[in-house]
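INPUT
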Amino acid sequence: MQPVPRGVFARRVGRGVRDWIPAVVVFLLGLALWEFGVKALDVQNFLLPPLSDILDALWNDRSGLVDAALFTFKEALGGFVVGSSAAIVVALVLARWRPLASAVMPYAIAANAIPIIAFAPITNNWFGLLSPWSKIVIAAILCFFPVLVNTLKGLTSVRPASIELMRSYAAGEVEIFRRVRVPTALPYVFSALKVATVLAMIGAIVGDYFGGSQDSLGIVIRRDAGIFAFEHAWAGIVIASMLGILFYAAVAILERLAMGWQPSARIE
Amino acid sequence: MTVVSLQKVDKTFGKGGVTALQGIDLEIGEREFVSLIGPSGCGKSTLLRIVGDLIQPTSGDVVVNGKSARQAREDRDYGIVFQDAVLFDWRTVTKNIALPLEMLGWDRSRRSERVREMLRLVELDGFESHHPWQLSGGMQQRVSIARALSFSPPLLLMDEPFGALDEMTRERLNLELLRIWEALGSTIVFVTHSISEAVFLSTRVVVMSPRPGRITDVVEIDLAQPRSAETREHPRFFELVADVRHKLRGSDELLSEAELIVAEEGL
Amino acid sequence: MASVAVERPSRFAVAGRPLLQRVGLMLAVAVGLWAFWEAFKWVGEETGLKLGQFTVNDRTLPHVHDIVGQLFEPSRRNGPLLIEVLWDAALFTAKEAAIGFLLGASIGFLIAVVLVHSRLLQRGFLPYIVASQTVPILAIAPMVVIWLGGRGLPDWLSVSVISAYLTFFPVTINTLRGLDSADPRALELMRSYAANRLRILWKVRIPASLPFVFTALKVSATASVVGAIIGELPASIQSGLGGAILNFNQYYASSPPSLWATNLIAALLGIAFFLVILLAEKLVVRRAPEHVA
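OUTPUT
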C-alpha cells in the first residue's frame, strides 16, 4: 500500500513545486488579461478598473483600508470563535445522547437552509447599528450549523469493529469517546472550520449591507460603490479577499499541525 | 486446566428470529489451538464473540479462565484479532500496539519495552513510527496480532484474521502464528473458512453447520509439532483435510453447492 | 461555500426507531424550542437581562404567537394582509433564486465535466476557483447590478447572476470530486468495451457523481436564496423579500413582529428550496447505507 498524498485538494493541485506551475501560469495570464484586456476592451471603470489603478488606490489608502479590514476581521473572528465553539460543544452533547441528536438534526439542517443574513436587521436592532456584536452574532450563527452537522457526523462515523475492539478492552463510553470518536471526528471538524472561516467573513462583510459602522470594510466598499469610487471599492474587495485567504490558510495550517497523520482527506 | 467451557449455549437474534447457535458444548484446554470451521451462517463468529462477551448468549453457561465471560473480559483475559486489522489511522504502529497497555495504566517505559518485544515477535522491527496506511495488509495484521498479545493474555480469539490476504502471505503468517503460539504458550480459538489452514494450525478442528448453528464434529489433528512448511506435504495432512472436508459435506445435506465450494476453498 | 456533510434520513426508520416515534420526537423538539423562546423571553424580561445594548422586551423578542399572528394583519392601513404581501415577495425572490440556481448549477457542472478530463487544467484553475469564494461577491453586487443594468438587462437578472455565482462553486467542487470517485475498475471495464470518453462520462462517471452533486445542490439551494435576497438590495428592488426586509426594518419600531414575520417567510423559502432538492435526491440517488456506529 502506497502512502497517498495529503488532501483531495493537494492531490489535484499537486504537491511538488512543479505541479504549481500551471496555477502560476494562469495567475500571470489572469493578471495580464486584467490589466491590458480591461484597457483594450474599454471596460467601464464600473465593473473592473485596470489592476494598476486598483493597486494604486490600495497603496494610497493602505492604512485606512487595513484599519477597516481589521475592524471587519475582528467581527468575523469573533463570530467564528463563538459559533464554532458552541457548535462543537453541542455536537459533543448530541453525540452522547443519540435520540436527541436524531430529533434535533432535521432542525439543524433546516436552519442551515435559512438565509441567516436576513437576520442582520434584527441583530442591528438588538445591539445597535454600529456595534460589532450585531455582525458577530450573524457570523456566529452562520458558522454554527455547518460545524455542528460536520462534527456530529465525524463523532458518529466510527467503524463498528473499532467499538468492538474497545469493548474487548472493557473500555467504558468515556474512554471510547476519548480514544476513538474524537480522533475520528477531527478531519470532519477541520473541514467544517475551513468552511466556517469563509462564512464568518461573508457574515461580517455582508452583514454591513443592512447597515453598519463607518469603520467596517463592508460599509466602505458599499459607500465607494455609491459614490462611484470604484478603484477604492475594488481595493477594499482585494483586501477583504486576501484577508479571507489568510484566515482560511491559518486554519489549514492548524489542521496540518493537528493531523499530520492524515493519509488522504476523504473530506476537503 | 480448562480455559474455555461452553455448556448448552444457545443464541437467537431477534424475537423468534434466527437461531444462530444451538446446544453448543465445547471445552478448550490450556495451550490448545482450536479452529472453528463451517459454511456461512454456522455461527462460528457468533460463538467467538460469545466467548469474548461481545455478544451475550440467550441461554447456557460460558466460563472463561474460571470466571464468567463478562468478568474475563473486564479482567482482560483475552486478546482479539479481527479479519480487518482495525488499527487506528491516527496512531503509529507503536502507539497502536500500546493501546491496550495505555488503557491498563502501564507507565511509559514499561509500555515501550513491551512494544519493542512485540515488534520483534512479529518481525516488524524498524516500523515503529509508521502509520497503518503505510503498511501492507499482512503487516497490518501482524500489528493487530502484536496488539492483541501485548498484555500477554492467556487466551487469543481470532476471527478469520488472514481471510483478506493472499495465499502466500497467509501461509507465511500461519507459520509465524504457530511460532508465537509456541513461544507464549497461549490458548488460541481460531475461526476460519479454510480447511487447509484449520488443519495446519490446530490441535483440534471443530466442524460446525448452519440452520441451526451447531457443532457437528470434532477432528483431532495428530500431526507432529512443531509444524513446518513440510507438514503441508505430509500424507497425514491430506488425509486429515479430506476427513474434515468429508465431515463438512456430510454434516448438512442442505448445504448448497456454492457453500461447499466456499468451504473447500482452502485446498 | 464548500461542501457540508448533511445527514440523510433513511426511509422509514432511523437507528431502528419507527417513523411515528421519530415524528413525535421532532414535534417534541419543536415544542421545546418554542417553550425555550418564551421562557427566555419571560426570564429576560423579569430579570432585566442586559447584553450590551440588548435588552429583552417585546421590541427585541416578540412573542412567537405575535409573529405568526402578524402575518394575518394588514401590512399597512387598509392594505393587503402581510402574508399576501410576503407571499408575492417570496415568489418574486424565488424566481430570481431559481434562475440563479439553475444557471449556477449548470455552469458549475460544466466546469467540473471539463476539468475532470485534464489534470493540467485542474492544477491551473482550481486554486482560483477555491479562492473565488473568499471574494465577498456580495460586495461586488452593486457593480454587477450597475453593469448589467447599463446593458439594458432587467434588474432581477442581475440578482440571478449574483445568485448563480454563489451556486456554482459548491457544485463545481463536489461534482469534480464525484466524477473522480468513479470506480477505476468500472472505468477499465468501459475501456475494454472501447467506449469513448463521452460514453464513459455518461454511463459511469456521472452516475457515480450524483450523491456528491446532490450534497452540493443542497448547499447551493440555500446559497441561491441568500444571493437573491442580498442581491436585491443594491439593485433597489422593492418587489422581493430583500426589499421587504429593508422596508420592515425601517418600520421596526412601530411593528417589530412584521420584520420577524418577513424573516420567517424568508426562512421558509430557504427551507422550501432545500426540500425540493432533498426530494429530488431521494428519487434519483440510491446508495448503500453506511455501516457506522
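end of record. The first helix of chain C runs from residue 19 to 47.
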